[in-house]
Design brief:
The chain has eight helices and 49 strands. It is mainly beta. A hairpin with a 3-residue loop joins strand 39 and strand 40. It is globular, with a radius of gyration of 28 Å.
């Protein structure tokens, strides 16, 4: 055992050595960035002790975003509009009448409250300071770095939602930039840990990247970027986010197909009229190093006001507790806006994100149990496994304001998502295709995943005797693509004394997916060598005979028409409703080159097509008993077409396989306190999926609408920006999921859906500490989850019969236990522009399963620490 421990330690050191090859370059880059930041301040070292003017120690970078649309013109009118938008009081310390001589720029978009006021005053020679948490003072004064106790986000970035969050009849969580920075998160996946009702899952065989479940239903295809579906299969980085919005509940009207449990929208950064330089460097355990830069500059007054912005990111590092997994990412996102001071604003943006990882599909199941392998065990081939993505996304946004009551906007996108992956999935015995209850007689035992022979193992087999762990190779090369346009009009008007807020739109385009898949199985035996459970040899050279099993070309063309009207029935009531019609037309082609002798032969599929046309509906009622709160009822429908993820077959193309239909009811309440600095909301909901598709376990081409699934529950959340530097983000969700009918899997009725924990909880609190420190502490709880709903339990032991058959003696659920994880943060301003920050994640080094899958389990990262410097200059 000591020899094995020494071998394991040596292996980890060698893995770290591989990553150390470029460390010196990274250290040089980080040192250069820190030196440039220090030099840019032109401050002596003694200035590091300078007191924060507000005494809060909270940098402006942590203030939340709000939506502003303030016209260029007289400064006094602009300040009045600013007061209405923020709820703050602005005091003018100038002689009477002086303000009338000033003019301001137009301010439109999502900004922090201090940024918006700074833009209004830009070029006037005036500045501002904070009198208290609700009052700003404008006058002629020296510029200081100020800290405002600002309100929480009050609106969704997308203008298709016309009402403030407080009066929007839907559960919506907005994760602003300051939360992501405080937690030092770098991915969409980690950002969404701040939202109740969302759980994460491992990548599927043909679709790597972000996989998640919203309110019990898969949402892999319900991720949007600036309001347009972000179709690619990749891991999304947060370096270019202004905020992330999780809209749970009915969303079919605004977003089209899918959206059963809700959608995720990533809102990107856009150019501003205010100069900005922000650099963040992070160094930490597992040889982690990351640098991001956010550079914004107004370019000229030509074309009605022009500004440019660029965000850059580079990261390299390992994963705590998973010694061979490595992450390497690079991203750049330039954008330019024109017409910032006019009624027509156009923004052209481009995002490039590349990734070259050593991927990790974790550990195998032993029937229904987590394998006893060491948490550091890696069953793949570090020098042969890879995940490479190279995404390019070009977006043009144009907004024209005909009048304060009518505006037109369009967003067009061309996106290309190439990816290549070869990932090792560890398996022991094959998965059961259907549930087999205790006492059932079966003809044969489960088979070894490696060679198809009867599986000699069960849950009672000592781990040291499990010596044939299959290394299933998931190899795919694919290009996804997207050409899309969305045009919307918003109008405010009155009819018969009733005020209306109408949004109507049309969108459409095409999506493509062209995966090429490879197998290494010949004569039902994996040609890749197997591993032992307790001591997998991650230094073993990769070997195997690979061949292409399928080449697929899929193209979907779709169009959607929709409108939503909100009617304001006096001060107390709002009634909204909408209709959408979607047309989704998909063509699918599959073929296979001639496989080698004994290779897997893919069943030929002639070119198939599928056309779905479906309406969606929504209705909501809002009661506003106070200007600080609302009570609402919401109803909505959505649908999932057969080719939703651009995957078809003969069975799915069959005209009898109709779209799945979803129906959601939600009742909730939202309340705002402390001058919009504390927002609390809660909701009860019920979502039922009818016509759920099921595949016959004995014939993959026999697919029918034969299932019904139900999720009901409640959730609560609170977001606050309180005095004494206290920020609060917390949420709790209770989900009760059930299979309520199934044709092919009747034993699954009454069991929970896959990857749906009954309870999830999240909290992150920051507070001002002595010595100008700001500290944060957070926790996440995810309850127990099952890996599959169609096979709720699997046979775990058998009794042999005299006739050569076997009787099932016991069964078990494929279920992962719940877990708690704790995280901490501390930061301190060094100067007016520099801030030191340190984060520790998984403080207690908990060992838990973060990403479950029916065939493998990915452990969560162990304890890790990050330290870095944040630099911000305006």
């Amino acid at each position: 055992m000591k020899q094995k421990a020494r071998k394991k330690t040596a292996g980890r050191k060698m893995g770290h050595a591989r990553m150390f090859r470029s460390t010196r370059g990274w250290i040089a880059m980080g040192t250069l960035a820190a030196y440039a930041a220090m030099g840019g301040t032109r401050l002596a070292l003694a200035a590091a002790a300078k007191a924060d003017p507000s005494g809060s120690g909270t940098p402006a970078a942590t203030l939340p975003l709000k939506r502003f649309d303030i016209a260029a013109g007289p400064l006094d009118a602009a300040i009045e509009a600013y007061e209405k938008a923020t709820g703050l009081k602005v005091k003018i310390v100038l002689p009477d009448g002086t303000l009338a001589g000033f003019n301001s720029h137009r301010v439109v978009g999502l900004f922090r409250e201090d940024e918006a006021l700074r833009q209004i005053l830009d070029g006037t020679g005036l500045n501002y300071r904070v009198e208290d948490s609700t009052t700003m003072i404008v006058g002629v004064q020296a510029k200081d770095t100020v800290s405002v106790t600002a309100s929480v986000a009050s609106a969704v970035s997308m203008e298709k939602f016309t009402e403030p969050l407080l009066y929007t009849p839907q559960s919506i969580s907005v994760i602003p930039q300051f939360v992501m920075q405080d937690q030092a998160v770098s991915t969409l996946r980690d950002t969404l840990r701040n939202v109740p009702g969302i759980s994460l899952a491992a990548g599927e065989a043909g679709a790597q990247g972000d996989n998640l479940t919203i309110r019990g239903f898969t949402a892999r295809n319900d991720i949007f970027l600036d309001g347009i579906r972000d179709f690619g299969s990749y891991y999304r980085d947060s370096f270019n986010y202004d905020q992330v919005e999780a809209l749970e509940g009915p969303a079919g009207i605004q977003f089209g197909r899918g959206s059963t449990g809700g959608v995720i929208n990533q809102e990107t950064k856009v150019p501003q009229v205010q100069k900005l330089v922000a650099v963040q460097t992070l160094f930490g355990t597992d040889l982690t190093r990351r640098i991001t830069a956010d550079l914004n500059s107004p370019m000229s007054n030509a074309l009605g006001g022009t500004a440019a912005r660029v965000n850059v990111m580079a990261q390299e590092g390992g994963v705590a507790g998973r010694d061979d997994a490595e992450i390497r990412r690079f991203g750049i996102a330039p954008s330019v806006s024109i017409g910032l001071d006019t009624k027509t604003v156009a923004t052209l943006s481009y995002v490039h994100l590349s990734e070259n990882d050593t991927p990790d599909y974790g550990l195998p199941w032993v029937f229904n149990e987590l394998s006893p392998a060491d948490r550091h065990s890696y069953f793949g081939f570090p020098d042969a496994n890879y995940l490479k993505t190279n995404d390019d996304i070009m977006t043009l946004r144009v907004r024209h304001e005909f009048s304060p009551a009518v505006n037109l906007r369009t967003i067009a996108r061309a996106a290309n998502y190439p990816r290549q992956a070869q990932i090792t999935e560890p398996q022991i015995c094959s998965n059961a295709s259907a549930s087999v209850p205790v006492g059932t007689v079966v003809k044969s035992l489960p088979t070894l995943a490696y060679n198809g022979a009867p599986c000699p193992y069960d849950v009672n087999t000592p781990a040291s005797e499990i010596t044939q762990v299959n290394r299933n190779q998931i190899q795919v090369k694919s290009v996804e693509g997207d050409l899309w346009d969305q045009t919307e009009v918003s109008a405010l008007f009155k009819t018969w004394g009733v005020r209306h807020a109408l949004v109507a739109g049309v969108e459409g385009g095409q999506e493509i997916s062209n995966p090429i898949r490879t197998s290494y199985t010949i004569n039902k035996v994996n040609t890749v060598p197997y591993a032992t459970l307790l001591d997998p040899n991650d230094k073993q050279p990769f070997a195997g005979t690979g061949y292409i099993t399928s080449i697929v070309h899929t193209k979907s063309k779709s169009v959607g028409l929709y409108f939503v009207d909100t009617m304001k029935l006096g001060r107390l009531f709002e009634l909204s409703g909408g209709v959408r019609w979607d047309r989704f037309d998909t063509d699918y082609n599959l073929y296979q080159p001639t496989p080698p002798a004994g290779g897997t032969v893919t069943v030929p599929v002639p070119p198939v097509s599928r056309l779905d046309e479906q309406p969606s509906y929504r209705a909501a009622f809002v009661y506003k008993p106070s200007t600080r709160g609302s009570i609402y009822f919401d109803y909505g429908t959505s649908f999932n077409p057969s080719a939703e993820s651009l995957s078809l077959s003969i069975g799915l193309a069959n005209g009898s396989v109709l779209p799945e239909e979803n129906e959601t009811y939600e009742v909730g309440s939202k309340w705002s306190f402390l001058n919009e600095r504390l927002l609390m909301e809660g909701a009860w909901f019920r979502t039922e999926k009818d016509n759920a598709r099921e595949t016959d376990p004995t014939n993959s081409n026999n697919i029918v609408n034969a299932g019904n699934q139900l999720v009901k529950g409640m959730q609560f959340s609170v977001v606050g920006r309180l005095p004494e530097g206290m920020d609060l983000v917390a949420g709790y969700a209770y989900l009760n999921s059930d299979v309520i009918f199934s044709k092919f899997f009747p034993t699954s009725v009454g069991y929970p859906l896959a990857n749906v924990p009954k309870q999830t909880f999240n909290v992150f609190v920051t507070h001002r500490l002595p010595w100008r420190l700001n500290g944060g502490l957070g926790s996440n709880y995810v309850g127990s989850r099952t890996a599959s709903s169609t096979v709720p339990y699997v046979p775990t032991s058998y009794t042999p019969n005299d006739d050569g058959t076997f009787t099932v003696a016991s069964v078990g659920m494929k279920q992962v236990p719940g877990y708690w994880v704790f995280n901490a943060m501390v930061k301190r301003p060094l100067t007016e522009k520099l801030e030191l920050q340190a984060n520790v994640n998984n403080l207690l080094n908990r060992y838990y399963i973060d990403l479950p899958h029916p065939s493998h389990l990915v452990p969560g990262a162990g304890a890790s620490a990050l330290i870095g410097i944040n630099f911000r200059f305006k």
